[in-house]
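subagent[fold] <- orchestrator: predict structure for attached chain, return C-alpha cells only, no commentary.
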Amino acid sequence: MCRAEKSKGLDVLIDAYLSNPPTNSCLVIVGGGREWKALRKKAPAKILMPGFVNRPQDWFSAFDGYVSAARYEPFGLVFLEAFAAGLPVLSTASEGAQIFQALIGRPLLKCGDRHSMTEGLQQFLSERPAKRTYDLSDFNYENQVNRVEAFYKKQWTRQRSNSLNE
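subagent[fold] -> orchestrator:
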C-alpha cells in the first residue's frame, strides 16, 4: 500500500525482488501515483500491481507480510495499518520505521540499497514470520488527543511562567 513516488523506494523493492526471486512468494504492490506507470513498465507480470484500491484493509488481510522500501517516510500511517492487520514488517530505516522500530522487531535495512533489500527479503521470506497481535494502544485516538492536549498545556504553562517572570 503506497503512493508511487521516488521516495517510496518501490524501484529498489522491484529490483531486489527480481535479482533473486524468492520461491513460493508473490510481490504485490497496491497504490497509485506519479511513478505508477514507470513502475508497472519495469515490473514483469508476475509482480501483481492492481493499482489504487478503496479498501486497503481487505488487501492487508490477504498478505503474509508488509515491506516498506521507503527512502524517506516521515511517519508512515501504513505501518499502523500493517500492524492492525497483524502483519510482520520488513522495512528500511526511514524516519517512520524508526518510530516503530520496537514494534517491527527486526533490524531496519539501509534506505535505497538494493543489496540490503535483497538480503532482507530473502531472510524475511525464509523466516516466514507469523501474523501477530501488536499493542497499538499508544496510537489510539484518545491517547493521541491526550498527548497533543498535554503538549499545548505544557507550552501554555511555560509561556505564562515566562511572562510572569518578566
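orchestrator: received. Logging for downstream: Residues 136-166 form one domain. The mean pLDDT is 93.
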